[in-house]
Specification:
Blueprint lengths: L1 H18 L2 H14 L6 H26 L7 H16 L7 H23 L3 H19 L5 E2 L7 H4 L1 E2 L2 E2 H19 L1 H11 L1 H6 L4 H27 L1 E2 L7 H11 L11 H20 L4 H27 L1
Antiparallel strand pairs: 1-4, 2-3
Helix pairs in contact: 1-14, 2-13, 3-8, 3-11, 3-12, 3-13, 4-5, 4-6, 4-11, 5-6, 5-11, 8-9, 9-11, 12-13
Length: 320
């Protein structure tokens, strides 16, 4: 009997780890489905996915960082800077390099933060808080404090066109989620990310190059943030230094609601997907119901605390 119980418990833990937050997502979906007919429309469903896509991309990079026990407060500032870079380049004769330039800028920003954390030894909070400040300032300097507009944007299809019935924003976000989830679950690199977050000293003793791993996750976060910045710019046909404000909090919320532990070593990208969808459905549903922005902030804070508390209790129960 004990032999048959072990695989069953392992299966339950695996399902809980990946889909533990799913019931909360379904509850929110059902509540708004019942409360307002406008929420049920196909157009509104597409609006939810489109609005959530950018946060999911940025939150995917954030999840990788948090899994190593770190944090990246600069993701919103990177999105702003890279959006400005993309718009600036799009107005030149080298417009076809707009997206690559933005992505490389984001990776360079992540490289600096990762170096400060991994090799200089700065706490992730301090390193990325400083990065958030100087990168935001750089974005304002680059655009001279005004919005850069390009009505003939070469990569506008990213934010406005469809692949069949699906917005490209949604397709790109799902591709990022699927690739990142596969990397974490099926590759040696993913195993090492969890190992570093679970026990840094033990990971070092097993031969894992901890500094290189820490550096890599910040570069990945920078790439994801830059991709988010490109997605924003493509949607708006414009960019300025204010883009991405508060996105770091949304990304952290998606990851933590989805079950990623702040202490590192525990969490999944699928959980982050569900966490991001919860925030997207909540924002959309409350807006349709006419709830004020300030009241929405109160509700969002309560939901974050409640969702994390429920998930912790569920994990405790499954361990018994």
């Amino acid at each position: 009997m004990a032999v048959s119980e072990a695989p069953r418990r392992a299966w339950i833990k695996r399902v809980t780890r990946n889909f533990g937050i799913l019931p909360i997502l379904l509850i929110f979906f059902a509540v708004f489905w019942v409360l307002t007919p406008n929420f049920r429309s196909v157009n509104n469903m597409m609006n939810i996915f489109r609005a959530t896509s950018i946060n999911l991309v940025i939150a995917t990079g954030m999840t990788m960082v948090i899994l190593t026990g770190g944090i990246d407060l600069s993701v919103g500032a990177i999105a702003a800077l890279t959006a400005v870079v993309a718009l600036k380049v799009s107005l030149t004769s080298a417009y076809f390099l707009a997206v690559p330039a933005a992505l490389l800028t984001g990776m360079a920003a992540g490289l600096v933060s990762g170096t400060l954390v991994a090799y200089v030894g700065l706490p992730p909070f301090i390193a990325t808080l400083g990065a958030m400040t100087y990168l935001r300032g750089a974005a304002f300097l680059l655009c001279n404090g005004v919005s850069i507009i390009n009505s003939d944007l070469s990569f506008a299809w990213i934010g406005n066109d469809y692949l069949g019935p699906f917005p490209w924003l949604m397709v790109i976000a799902l591709a990022v989620v699927i690739i990142a989830s596969w990397v974490l679950r099926k590759t040696v690199y993913g195993m090492r990310v969890y190992a570093v977050g679970g026990n840094l000293q033990a990971a070092r003793y097993t031969g894992i190059k901890v500094k290189q791993m820490l550096l890599s996750v910040y570069v990945i976060s920078g790439f994801c943030s830059a991709l988010g910045g490109v997605m924003i710019a493509s949607r708006l046909y414009s960019a300025n230094g204010l883009i991405g404000e508060g996105y770091e909090l949304d990304a952290i919320a998606a990851a933590i609601i989805g079950g990623t532990s702040f202490s590192g070593g525990k969490g999944t990208i699928i959980g982050t997907l569900f966490g991001g969808l919860i925030m997207g459905i909540l924002n959309n549903g409350l807006t349709i119901l006419g709830v004020s922005y300030y009241s929405q902030q109160v509700v969002r804070g309560i939901v974050i605390i409640a969702a994390v508390t429920i998930d912790i209790l569920r994990n405790v129960l499954t361990k018994k």
